[in-house]
## 1
Amino acid sequence: MAVTVSIPTILRTHTGGEKSVQAAGSTVLEVIEDLEAKHGGLKERLVKDEKLHRFVNVYVNDEDVRFAGGLEASVADGDNLTILPAVAGGMR
Amino acid sequence: MLQIRRDLVDAIWAHARRDHPDEACGVVAGPEPAGPPERHIPMDNAERSPTFYRFDSMEQLKVWREMDANDEVPAVIYHSHTATEAYPSRTDVSFASEPDAHYVLVSTRVPENTEFRSFRIVDGEITEEPVEIVESYMFTHTGADDVPDRAAERD
Ligand SMILES: [Zn+2]
């Protein structure tokens, strides 16, 4: 199950500057575990308390996984997984 | 320093005033690697809230792909505060993840307010920077001196 993962600028320090890397897995979490094995340090930027970290958005193809099963969302061979920093803030 | 065209500043103010009392947010894209800001993209505040903002995730995906295809970066990421001053909050800082972006804040707390402020937010640290509003970038120096050393150490 090979997927192409787009890495945002802020996380490229973990991928040696690469914008896009290959990973394997049949769920978002498995892909993240595989990324962690190849590019240590990525997982803690993406996962907190066994959930997707609120600082990031993860998409499988054109779908925001927050609305599609979160870390358990399924991923198929040839899919694109896109990671973007969430752009947000609050008054306090 | 942030150098930005007056029409872009006006567009950001118009967006902030239109959405008041909710926070307004958006980006101004510019050519990579570091601007100048050229293309104003008002974003939906998915929270529709006077105290919180979040880019709509689907709109963000579309806009980020467009920027990628155009070799653009989010030169400016802006939002409004509608009840407090134009200064990044703790939450704003915790989410700030573009070390190369100018984080612009405006405040619509007082209608006659014209405070338009810009910050760099890197590793949780806020640095305010001066803002120069210009009519056009044509005759101004846009920071060619800021290009980082290119692998001077390499053979
Ligand atoms: Zn804020």
## 2
Amino acid sequence: MTTPGLLLDARQVTVRYGKIAAVQDVSLRIREGEVVTIVGPNGAGKTTLLSALMGLLPLAGEVAYFGGAPMRAPSVEALVRAGMGLIPEKRELFTSMSVADNLALGGFDRWRRGTRDQADDLAEIYALFPRLAERRMQPASTLSGGERQMLAMGRALMARPRLLLLDEPSLGLAPLVMRDIFRTIESLRARGVSVLLVEQNARAALKIADYGYVMEAGCFVLEGPAAELAHNERVIEAYLGVATADRTPAPAVPL
Amino acid sequence: MNAFVAAYLTQDGLANGAIYCLLAIALVLVFAVTRIIFIPQGEFISYAALTYVALREGHTPGTVGLLLALVAGAGFIDLLREGFGGLVSVVRRSLAPVGLAGLAAVSARFGLPALVDLLITVALVACMGPLLYRIVYRRIAQASSLVLLIVAVAHHLVMLGLGLYFFGPEGVRAAPLIDASVSLFGVPVQAQTIVILLSCAVLVGGLYVISERSFYGKAMRAAAINPIGARLMGISAELAGETAFLVAAVIGAISGILISGATTIYYDSGFLLGLKGFVAGILGGLASFPLAGIGAFGVGLLESFASFYASGFKETIVFALIIPILLWRSMAKAR
Ligand SMILES: Nc1ncnc2c1ncn2[C@@H]1O[C@H](COP(=O)(O)OP(=O)(O)OP(=O)(O)O)[C@@H](O)[C@H]1O
Ligand SMILES: [Mg+2]
């Protein structure tokens, strides 16, 4: 039972910390070329869900990756090899190593399997983020918040993922930097990378996404095409602010 | 004490310090990557020294059988984990160690040159490192440091017992790699001392270059700096752990062969040497390679001079060094 074009098919996923279920019975699908977003308040379980989908936490339920059969307890390394990438909320950079080394390590798994085109990938990443090229010899720990986010993204792209899970890419960033990051996410689609985006900034997320889920207290309470969600009363009230109802104002973050 | 004695003691201290330096580096590396305080490090030394001498004397050492048992054990565990689909990779991983065991048996029977025996010994002990990681530590890699320490102590005791079983209680001393002595500023210097110091410098330099320049070295550092980040790059804890154990085993094996040309080695000598490496490693909090290296030479020199002034208290003085080091470290942290 495989479906072409379906990159991720998660059914009835539950993730527990001890006895407490932080994610309960959620189902989600991502098709090739899609940007799918999950929005929701703090503590809803978004990070937990992404970590579990990436194999970092054990989950109950069925998850099929890249149109294959559902996998039981896949390892992070197996998923990386299959084409999954995660940019975690905490970034998890190699702080005492240089920007260039961090990026190079992003391509480690492909290098280990015998591919030797990392130099091209690196040039492409530097073209995408010229700031990183300027700071290539600097230790990652000395980067600014926005630069760290760029590095995390560049490092993940070095692995050439087919599906990238992004956890709060705009966390703590100034509006201008945030705009750059969202632009990059949009450009990923053009490169054939599908994206599952978790965002506090629901407005910006729904704007670039094709499909969205609203998560509250561990469950999906609403889902639909992103454009529809952006006009849903409940979403507007809880996440977008009342002022935007029925009008198409200039968003606070121009995209 | 006159200058001549002092020069002699210094020479001795530096040679031992070089060995402690290598061991301290292995301990810091294993701890940084796996959080294991690797008590059995010293067993690699004894095993290597005793294996080398056995091969030179034309016996098949017990470590050959141990290596085969480890290969079988690790292969069995892998088959349990991966099912029969993993058979091909299990067989492929077993080829090198099994071939090596055969080579060792051939050398024992027909007597190959010393240099070949040396290489066989290092390769044999090196193979054990990753296998031991797979069998003993892989399943419990996520356990607390305390659990890992307890397992490491048990692992040490098992290897110590096996060492006694394989080699008996008699000590061995290998012929020095180069048996000569040169005169430096009027003081005779054993060629073995120079060999030890040079080997230490080459190994430390080599490890530094590998960790800074090679992709595997960088991956290892990444795994030590941020294990989650490393896993997300496809650098598994398993790969990092096996590589760290491989390096530790190579270091232990080379140290064992070097020191067996300078002193008599018994089945349990490695443990004491490893502990002194540990004292040196503590100086850098098991986290700093340069401090561990400096500490190691300090330990070697202290031990050497202590053996002149108070030979009965030699070991006591060295191990008592832990107390001021820990005091200094905790005060430095509190500030
Ligand atoms: N390691 C853990 N042990 C126990 N509970 C945890 C753990 N990690 C997270 N939780 C709990 O699980 C719930 C979901 O956390 P999660 O980090 O997934 O939320 P989130 O939706 O990502 O929130 P935010 O938007 O603030 O990042 C929270 O109530 C949190 O306290
Ligand atoms: Mg989160």
